[in-house]
């Protein structure tokens, strides 16, 4: 049997590190659970993908976790055959046997976990927990999860250091030894002045009822605004109807696809505004361009000619508009909310502005349970580093989590959010002191919030320390000590990557695809320029289309995505005539804090007024 098991592993592309020991254990697994070698290897492939193991090497160290995976599969199979039967796992037995010894759990006094156990124990005693980490007696159980057994913690995946050596973040290169450090807690010496720019979306359940008129007006306004900005720059003439035969033409319109499916060279259409062409569409040919990048919904300017009136042949494509770097002077006044009136009234004369922050995006718990272990680890790390500003982006109660989808949670989604997520955040802030602040942004994947985009902020009115927790809309823009930060939790980068049609320069210059995708957001002045939206995005233009607008380039743009994490400096503006100033923006994809049954990544950033003076690390948890 061992030879058959080895052959199945090799057939699936795996190699065995300690062959004799691994095959001996795998043979025992097959005998104990009546598995064929092919079934065993299939289960290993599922375990391998869920744990996101880096190498296609079967290691003896992974056999214990694999055994737990096989046990879970057996339990699920029995439950499917006999739905009314309750199966006790080894974890349940361990929890019961060790119930009397729970009081001996090691707790570091004064930490968020200590406060959690003391301040909120009575709340847990009154209700059955959602995820089994609290026994019926109210004491914390000794559940050992795959996430808790991981060996590598806080590993630097990527680092950008543009600061002098003496100004780099203290200890950012010592993450691997963080667990052994004895760090003295020092409260942040000041609190950042936070000002929210977008707050007109009020909390409350909404249904998608936007009319065709709402969509038409929103798209028409985008085309008109782009055309007006291009003309106002003095570099382009007034746009005309692109469907009229002409030897020289400049038109502004939106990229569309001729039919269903993705864009290709033969299916690109340009839809101009009603003002200039009555909303007519014309085929657009880009064969003469050496490089371009287009997607449905993108508003562009086209120089070219239309010899027949049926096809616009482009000689130049303008995919961005002149961006104003000043304050939002031409928009209607937005309600600016001061989160700390005393601090807001105080001006901090820092030149340049310096902020230190940690950025993390959900899910905040692994797919195995609802223990929120990655969130706890993150807050522990932020406590050790005395971080002044923590930005948390949803989903928090992920609607795609297996237990949420199956409906096996006994509490309401709001209760899980309050008792798990907000409780940890409150304990963290209570420990750090009044100068620490947390910004929370929802996601359309949050099961406890409005399924609509743009999305209102979480309602956090009942919280005792609401002045330290900022609830932002999705998307949203705020300022931290005059550093403008834009955030959007809808995965626009992934959506654009699936719809973009691009051609690289013939000179062989490498194209940074991640930077290009992020630059589309800024050059289009929209947090979600893709139209039609991707499947599953509840885009509703009837709510507040202004919420999608980016009137000026932010200093930091946070775009959580399932694609690979990155920190990129994107440059915008600048013309051959030198009439427009170059503007740089730091675009950040922190990745996901939890991935499957394992940990993901987050970003630690020190920003001193310019992308040329920053220190950023992407850290694996």
UniProtKB/TrEMBL annotation:
Family statement: Belongs to the DNA polymerase alpha subunit B family.
Listed InterPro entries: DNA_pol_a/d/e_bsu, DNA_pol_alpha_B_N_sf, DNA_pol_alpha_bsu, OB_DPOA2
GO BP term, example: DNA replication initiation
Signal sequence coordinates: none
Keywords: DNA replication, Nucleus
Assigned GO CC terms: alpha DNA polymerase:primase complex
Role noted for this protein: Accessory subunit of the DNA polymerase alpha complex (also known as the alpha DNA polymerase-primase complex) which plays an essential role in the initiation of DNA synthesis.
Entry keyword Transmembrane helix: no
Subcellular localization: Nucleus
DNA polymerase alpha/delta/epsilon subunit B domain segment(s): 358-568
GO MF assignments: DNA binding
Residue ranges the record marks as coiled coil: none
Gene field: LOC111317968
The name this protein goes by in its record: DNA polymerase alpha subunit B
Highest taxon of the lineage: Eukaryota
UniProt domain DNA polymerase alpha subunit B OB: residue ranges: 241-318
């Amino acid at each position: 049997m061992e030879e058959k098991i080895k052959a199945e592993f090799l057939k699936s592309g795996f190699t065995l590190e300690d062959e004799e020991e691994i095959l001996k254990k795998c043979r025992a697994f097959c005998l104990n659970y009546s598995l064929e070698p092919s079934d065993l290897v299939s289960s290993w492939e599922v375990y391998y993908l869920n744990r996101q193991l880096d190498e296609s090497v079967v290691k003896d160290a992974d056999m214990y976790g694999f055994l737990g995976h096989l046990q879970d599969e057996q339990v699920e199979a029995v439950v499917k055959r006999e739905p009314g039967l309750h199966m006790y796992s080894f974890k349940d037995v361990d929890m019961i046997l060790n119930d009397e010894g729970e009081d001996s759990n090691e707790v570091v006094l004064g930490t968020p976990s200590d406060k959690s156990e003391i301040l909120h124990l009575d709340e847990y005693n009154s209700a059955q927990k959602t995820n089994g980490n609290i026994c019926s007696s109210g004491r914390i159980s000794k559940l050992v999860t795959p996430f808790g057994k991981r060996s590598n913690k806080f590993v630097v995946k990527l680092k950008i250091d543009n600061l002098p050596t003496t100004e780099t973040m203290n200890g950012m290169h010592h993450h691997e030894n963080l667990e052994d450090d004895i760090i003295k807690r020092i409260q942040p010496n000041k609190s950042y002045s936070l000002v929210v720019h977008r707050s007109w979306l009020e909390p409350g359940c909404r249904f998608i009822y936007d009319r065709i008129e709402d969509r038409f007006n929103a798209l028409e306004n985008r085309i008109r605004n782009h055309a007006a900005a291009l003309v106002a720059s003095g570099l382009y003439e007034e746009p005309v109807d692109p469907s009229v035969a002409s030897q020289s033409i400049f038109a502004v319109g939106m990229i569309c696809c001729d039919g269903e499916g993705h864009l290709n060279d033969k299916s690109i259409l340009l839809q101009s505004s009603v003002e200039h062409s009555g909303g007519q569409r014309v085929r657009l040919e880009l064969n003469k361009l050496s490089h371009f990048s287009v997607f449905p919904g993108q508003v562009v300017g086209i120089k070219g000619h239309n010899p027949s009136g049926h096809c616009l042949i482009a000689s130049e494509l303008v995919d961005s508009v002149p961006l104003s770097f000043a304050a939002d002077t031409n928009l209607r006044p937005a309600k600016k909310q001061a989160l700390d009136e005393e601090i807001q009234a105080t001006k901090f004369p820092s030149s340049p502005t310096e902020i230190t922050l940690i950025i993390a995006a959900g899910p905040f718990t692994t797919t195995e349970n609802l223990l929120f272990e990655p969130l706890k680890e993150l807050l522990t790390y932020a406590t050790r580093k005395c971080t002044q500003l923590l930005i948390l982006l949803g989903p928090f109660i992920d609607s795609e989590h297996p237990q949420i989808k199956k409906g096996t949670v006994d509490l309401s989604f709001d209760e899980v959010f309050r008792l798990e997520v907000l409780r940890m955040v409150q304990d963290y802030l209570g420990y750090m002191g009044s100068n620490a602040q947390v910004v929370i942004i929802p996601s359309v994947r949050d099961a406890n919030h409005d399924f609509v985009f743009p999305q209102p902020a979480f309602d956090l009115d009942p919280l005792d320390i609401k002045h330290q927790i900022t609830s932002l809309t999705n998307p949203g823009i705020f300022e931290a000590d005059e550093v403008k930060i834009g955030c959007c939790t809808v995965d626009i980068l992934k959506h654009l990557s699936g719809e973009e049609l691009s051609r690289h320069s013939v000179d062989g210059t490498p194209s940074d695809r991640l930077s290009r995708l992020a630059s589309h957001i800024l050059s289009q002045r929209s947090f979600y320029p893709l139209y039609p939206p991707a499947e599953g995005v509840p885009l509703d233009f009837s709510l507040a289309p202004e919420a999608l607008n980016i009137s000026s380039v932010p200093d930091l743009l946070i775009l959580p995505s399932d694609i690979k994490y990155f920190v990129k400096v994107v440059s915008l503006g600048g013309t051959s005539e030198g009439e427009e100033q170059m503007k740089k923006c730091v675009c950040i994809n922190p990745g996901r804090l939890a991935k499957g049954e394992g940990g993901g990544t987050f970003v630690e950033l020190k920003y001193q007024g310019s992308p040329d003076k920053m220190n950023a690390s992407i850290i694996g948890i």
